[in-house]
Protein 1
Amino acid sequence: MSRFTQVCLGLMVLALAALFMWPDRSPGPQQAEPVADRADPAGPQAASKSATRTIERPPSQAKAPPSEPTPQDARVAREQLRASILAQQARRANEPAPARPDRAEPVEAAAPTGELRNRIGGHEDLLAQLNTDFMPLAGECIDAARERDPDLGGMLTVNVEIMSDEELGSIVETVEFGDQDGINDEELRTCIRETTLSMILPEAPTGQEQFMLTLPLE
């Protein structure tokens, strides 16, 4: 083998050695995607169902704000109590009925929005209930009547009959107005009547009783 050939073979061996020993410059493996960006293994249909379960609310879980009592609610409660009292009285039909008073017992009001004065004694619970529930509303009825007629005056007489049961309570059975007071404002009378009939009164001895309210309109 000639000298030239030997030199060429040596250069080729060095070139091959350099090629195999050269560092690998190829790009490394790609960075893994964040878990949050990966697609749901269960597929889009499962994801849709999950979202639906999140937003759906059964109607029974919705909490409505408490409603304020209305006059209709008071009237319904009164009628229910009246039916209960009548049923209780029917069960006591064999017992002697209490004596019914011959005349109404007056309870006088010092002012339309003031407190009632009891001129006969007793009935403290009834008087307290009337002062708390009846008088403020009666005052509103009278104020509205004064706006319609600034010259309105006199004394409005209200005859009230209550039906009571010593266990269940009392309700207003009838409301009538005295003819001698000279007050002819029918809207005022209707307002007072509806206010009185809507009341539920404290327990009293079983039976019926009458009393009279006098309301000054001055």
Protein 2
Amino acid sequence: MWMNVIVHYILWSLGPAACHLPDYASTPSNKIDQFCSLAETCIHDTIPICGRMGDEKRTFLDLCDLLEYACDTNQVFTHIEDIPGCPSIKQSS
């Protein structure tokens, strides 16, 4: 009997907490919106990465730069590990 009461109490008290999801926890419906959402909170680490969209390769300053570029231009580049095949970043002297 007491076990039944305890189980009902636990289920009754956890129900509202389990059913509540804040608005900010929802995932945007398309990739560009997801990239824009991630770009807003991204912290730049200045580690260059290579991105690819189809046959085009592009070097980005870091992952945040890739996300921001996708958000601004609606072009989704995928992070790839092929840095030697990517264009080099021009260093200012």
Protein 3
Amino acid sequence: MTSPASNTGLDGLRPHSCVLCQKRKVKCDRTTPCSGCVKAQVECEYRDPVPPRRRKKKLPEAAMVARLRRYEDVIRKAGIDTSLLEEDSRGESLPIRQPISAESRLEYSSPPSFNAPISVPSGNTSKSGPGKFISREGRSLYLDNNLWKSVSNELQDAEGILPEGSTDSILGPNEHEVEDANGDFLFVGKPSRQSLTHLHPDPLQIFKLWQMFLDGVNPLTKFIHAPTLQQQILNATSDLSSISRPLEALMFAIYCAALLPMQDDEARKSFHESKSTLMARYRQAAQQALVNAGVLGTSDLMVLQAFLLFIISARLAYSPHVLWSMSGICIRIGQRIGLHRDGSKLGLSVFETEMRRRIWWRSMVTDTTIGHMAGCESFFSDTEDVKLPSNVNDSALDPDMTEPPVELAGATEMTFCLLGYEMGVWLLKNSKSKTSTFDGYWQFVNSSSVPLDQKDQLIDELETMLETRYVRYCDPSIPLHLVSRIVAGSVVTLARIRAHHPRRYQEKGEEVPQAERELLFKLCKHLVECANILFVTRKAQRFFWHIDFHFPWESIIVMLSELRHRSIGKDVAEGWVLVNTALQRQFKSLHQPRKNPLHLAVANLAIKAWSAHVAESERRRVPPVPQPEIITKFWIYTQGYKSSNPSRTTNDTAVHFTPATTPVKNKYSFPTGQRATPSDTVATASEGDTALQNNINNQSTGLSPTDWNYRTDSVNFDLDMSAITELYPTDDSPMNWVEWDDLIQQFQQQKDVDMDMDLPPSFG
């Protein structure tokens, strides 16, 4: 479509190039139609250029002098000697005579609206702490620097101090030529803003991804208000070319996150492509969308939501160190927006206050989790000021509400997230050390200097609180409630294991009392049972992507250590079944090219424990427990390690053996394929389901036998048991728990080494 001819000049030419020639960056002859469009056989279109931004009129000299004097007066009140201004003009810095008093700090408070213009009440000091909060049109900024707070009084327009927003404007034809001022060069070699319309899936697939996100990711994160966003996505799908930058960034982040709980066959069935292909495409698009939205300089809550969701979805794509840096940026953006100050004290609306709490707490928990993976401790910076999100469903929240929602005394959509937040509050409250260590806020639980009775009392209080507020209301027939119930029990059990861990005795050079060993073995069995229940429950499959990041390594190692000394009895049979089930999932992708020190160490420990069991069974002339399948895999795994490292010496901690040329069956072996009886191990599949359910703090999970997939007949008896016993004699030496802690830390830092994790995210 061409513009009216009246816009042509006296010479019959148009005053500017057509849209196609502008886009292709070629010279346009400015005829109607131009020769370039005729040659390309496309419609020639002319658009008037966007008018330049109007500059503010230059103030008269008298007004400038008056304003300068006001600035000098403010600076003097801040404790700076203005008589040294001449020295400063020669390059010398100004000394600060005295710190700025807390009384001089003011605060801006925005009215309870996302889009209302800013209001500036003077002299209002918030209980949430000093600072000024500025908000306008969905963007906000929190000033906690005294100089900025002082001079901000002189800024008549919020635009003068708010960072240039992500804006809701659409990418124009020349947007890619705009000089980057938001620091996005940190993520791309040559920053550019590009149209991403062609990378969106079709509307039907968009709604499929949205539903997958609602089912598998949103229940575990809950920092997006689904009803509001769903309407925005519905409107956006009608015209993806006019979508705002913040919403587009959030939509691409949702596409990435929605793929997390999906299996590859599901992806091929629904989208006719592999999960890895889809994930790579949408991750790159999400990176570019974040660049388009100016993520590093944003003051837009929706862009922050998109960035946080992108970080959560990228946990398998980048190394923990890269992710930790990214989560740190996320926290800094949140602080700049003022999320670390509770919205109820900033004059914000009820809805915005609640959403800001949700975003801040999820950001803090994500940063802490990734920091633990990276071996770096994160800080709950100023978190005490921000209240926990309300225990309400999304349906109880509305952007137009004027009264806070009534919290429910029971389980809601927020229950799972609140369990984690309550645990963080408990750790923060009882932690005496804020040093940056791998243990972090768990130090008071791990420390041997804190009396054991005191730690047990604190853990009892935590358990009672979680049970009273959340757990007793959970309905095991609802997948999210089932996961919440089991996670709550696991968190308390983990705290007890850390409080009673053998390392507290090793630090003092003492032996672990028998009663403590019994308690530890029972606690570790319980925690591994919890993990196994989650992993074999089909209705919880959509949440595996999150649960996989919390594998109970400590409990497995303690159990294997004890199994070296516990060779006979029902506890031994149950212990081996639990260990086998847990490790089968963790080691399902073992392969020879790459070895992980923690995997090798656990394999070594497991084979030693199994060797001790076989030797004790032979000594007592009783049949051993059927050999766990994981022992066979460990044998092959460590054999491959030895063959690929012939220079290793016997002093290494890795497993070393000479493979048997002719496998010899142990004289106590059962016929291959024969199911073990309950007396030999534990209950068979249907009986074992009930036993395991009842073992979890006697709390019924409401699972039927069909929800389980335990196998006690997955046994391989073709290994030479005598060779194992000879090569891995019973080792009664004490465990070096410091070295095991180091191995776990190294494993967290090197997780997913088979992916290209050393490269930073290429945002664009």
Protein 4
Amino acid sequence: MNKKSLVFSLGGFILGALAVWLLLSFGTEQASEGSSDSKSKKANEPLYWVAPMDANYRRDKPGKSPMGMDLVPVYEEGAGAGDSPGTIKIDPNVVNNLSVKTGEVRKDSLVNTVKTVGYVTYDETKITRVHTRTEGWIEKLFVNHAGQRIEAGQPLFTMYSPALVNAQQEYLLAKKRNNNSLLKAAKQRLHSLNFDAKELKKLNQQEKPLQNVTFYAKSNGLVDELDVREGAFLQPGTRLMTIGNLDTVWVEVELFERQLPYVKVGQSASITLDYLPAKSWQGTVDYIYPIVNPSNRTAKVRLEVQNPQHELKANMFAEVSIDTATTEQILQVPQQAVIRTEDNNRVVLALGDGKFKSVGVTLGRTINDNIEVLDGLVEGDEVVLSGQFLIDSESSIESDFKRFGEQHAQDHEHQHGHDMDMSVPSARVSGLINSVDVDSNTVNISRGAIEKWNREPMTMDFDLDSSLSIDLFVVGENIDFTFEIRDEGFFITEVHSSVMEHNHD
């Protein structure tokens, strides 16, 4: 019986010890999980809330922006210790509410169409300008108005000229004497006076000077300008009319300087007009003028277009697309991804897991809706296409704060050794007190600009350091104060004075 009692006692002791061990282990695990959950919950608490359309409007609790939109939370974990300066993290729900869209940085051929407008003009190499080479009177004008169609060999006008009569007499005299040298000289004189071969044939047939000499068209075309009327007295060099040809026309367009690098002589172009919208004409770049118009900073480019049906008329307004495609592979992003500022150009990188970062880029040529990237991105990067302006603002602020904190840490370590704690960034500034919240021990202040951080004026909430009393802050007063940027937020640490206006950096 004693042995049985001993066995039962020993077994009971072992079972009790096992129960205690399990209970303690479970309790420790629960405590650990609770502590972990608490830390995680604290880490996931927002630092502040910001307006989606105005990064300068910040509050310490949820609410509405001046535009009636829900404020967006910004989390402390957005700038983790392992992230580079400027990296922020945004809750997936917020990303969805902001309609953030991304696109891939890619290499592609330079597929570009330069679109512009221009005017149809005559091919100047085929324009005929009719002048007189001697003085005389217009006896008969066969052309009545500008725009009249002219055929080669058609009579244009007849002219009485004493000089022409004398030249004909010299020719007939040389012919009568059978003097070849004089005859040749007389023919050359008639030719120099534009005496036509048809008129020479008449002269040989009737063997007496023609009093009224007829002049003929040398090419087909349309009368563009008519400058004389019947009976007019003409001096040598007087222009009577201008005849243009529409078989081939020029389309002259103007390009901006940034478009010029893409356009080369010989490239094809498509031309359309409003009066025949369903039809297009094909042309080629014939000449790029070497001068830029100083008034509008454009350069003229000439296209040559075949126009056998004469559907293109002089001075018509045309829409032109020049095909400048090449096989060159270049790195490019959509233009909408680029944030342009006075000092630089930036894009917002989507790093994954809700993390974003604003980076500077060097841009090149514009290709339709895309733009060439010379530096700052690599193929395969994801960039934000919409909603990037708010993200860029937050990234810039985060980058400034993180770099500032790191710089202070380096300075203090250099001066006081590595055992000293990292100091927090701080700034002195003045501002107007908008409201005071006694319960949360916070004040809302419209502060001035902070030059050393390159930050614009903004309205934001500040917590008070434990050493300060909230009674120091009166709504409507201007105050000069120093604040620090801590992990928990923005803390006012010192009040210097209440002033009407004060400027500090």
